[in-house]
């Protein structure tokens, strides 16, 4: 794999960030219930990479916490976690919906946060083995759909200004909140309609 700028790897940083965000969310559930996530992702190779991961994880947490207490959002996550059928299909629908109008740093943050909340909900529903699947799905989606965009936009190091702005200004009713509620609630409550639309084309 070619090295990116400053000797840092956007792939390693992205995978470590997914793991960090999900593990951070899982701190609120008993550790006995959570399987180890380490072998699933590449590990960071330098102090510099770890600093980038830590800072990005903090900003994603701030963005996510702005919607965390909203009951509609929690109900929607419940709906996705408990919906019948393939969880991978559900995850893919959520991810595709997030990026329906293009990729932005903020929407990448939203996807990672949603993965963390889904992981918590599945552990609460006594499906801890599914947490490893969520990590793997998020990593796979990142590698296939987001990594190229991230590299084209200067790497993770260029995400800080937009994510910092989002973490300061996104409030209830703001852009991320609106996007989250629309795609998650729509998926949970209108999955049959979504399925029909997707398969009609």
From TrEMBL:
<dbReference type="GO" id="GO:0015267">
    <property type="term" value="F:channel activity"/>
</dbReference>
<feature type="domain" description="Bcl-2 Bcl-2 homology region 1-3">
    <location>
        <begin position="60"/>
        <end position="156"/>
    </location>
</feature>
<comment type="similarity">
    <text>Belongs to the Bcl-2 family.</text>
</comment>
<dbReference type="InterPro" id="IPR036834">
    <property type="entry name" value="Bcl-2-like_sf"/>
</dbReference>
<dbReference type="InterPro" id="IPR002475">
    <property type="entry name" value="Bcl2-like"/>
</dbReference>
<dbReference type="GO" id="GO:0042981">
    <property type="term" value="P:regulation of apoptotic process"/>
</dbReference>
<dbReference type="Pfam" id="PF00452">
    <property type="entry name" value="Bcl-2"/>
</dbReference>
<keyword id="KW-1133">Transmembrane helix</keyword>
<feature type="transmembrane region" description="Helical">
    <location>
        <begin position="176"/>
        <end position="198"/>
    </location>
</feature>
<keyword id="KW-0812">Transmembrane</keyword>
<dbReference type="GO" id="GO:0097192">
    <property type="term" value="P:extrinsic apoptotic signaling pathway in absence of ligand"/>
</dbReference>
<keyword id="KW-0053">Apoptosis</keyword>
<protein>
    <recommendedName>
        <fullName>Bcl-2 Bcl-2 homology region 1-3 domain-containing protein</fullName>
    </recommendedName>
</protein>
<keyword id="KW-0472">Membrane</keyword>
<dbReference type="GO" id="GO:0008053">
    <property type="term" value="P:mitochondrial fusion"/>
</dbReference>
<dbReference type="GO" id="GO:0051400">
    <property type="term" value="F:BH domain binding"/>
</dbReference>
<dbReference type="InterPro" id="IPR046371">
    <property type="entry name" value="Bcl-2_BH1-3"/>
</dbReference>
<dbReference type="InterPro" id="IPR026298">
    <property type="entry name" value="Bcl-2_fam"/>
</dbReference>
<dbReference type="GO" id="GO:0005741">
    <property type="term" value="C:mitochondrial outer membrane"/>
</dbReference>
<dbReference type="GO" id="GO:0008630">
    <property type="term" value="P:intrinsic apoptotic signaling pathway in response to DNA damage"/>
</dbReference>
<dbReference type="GO" id="GO:0001836">
    <property type="term" value="P:release of cytochrome c from mitochondria"/>
</dbReference>
């Amino acid at each position: 794999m070619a090295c990116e700028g400053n000797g840092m790897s956007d792939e390693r940083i992205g995978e470590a960030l997914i793991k960090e965000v999900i593990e951070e969310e899982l701190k609120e559930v008993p550790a006995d219930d959570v399987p180890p996530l380490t072998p699933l992702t590449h590990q960071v190779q330098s102090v510099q990479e770890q600093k980038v991961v830590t800072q990005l994880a903090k900003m994603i947490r701030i963005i996510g916490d702005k919607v965390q207490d909203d009951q509609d959002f929690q109900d929607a996550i419940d709906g996705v976690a408990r919906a019948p059928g393939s969880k991978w299909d559900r995850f893919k629908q959520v991810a595709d919906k997030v990026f329906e109008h293009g990729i932005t740093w903020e929407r990448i943050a939203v996807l990672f946060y949603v993965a963390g909340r889904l992981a918590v909900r599945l552990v609460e529903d006594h499906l801890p083995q599914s947490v490893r699947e969520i990590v793997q799905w998020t990593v796979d989606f990142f590698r296939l759909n987001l990594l190229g965009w991230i590299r084209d936009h200067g790497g993770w190091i260029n995400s800080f200004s937009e994510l910092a702005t989002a973490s300061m200004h996104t409030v209830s009713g703001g852009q991320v909140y609106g996007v989250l509620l629309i795609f998650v609630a729509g998926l949970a409550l209108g999955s049959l309609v979504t399925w029909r639309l997707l398969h009609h084309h």
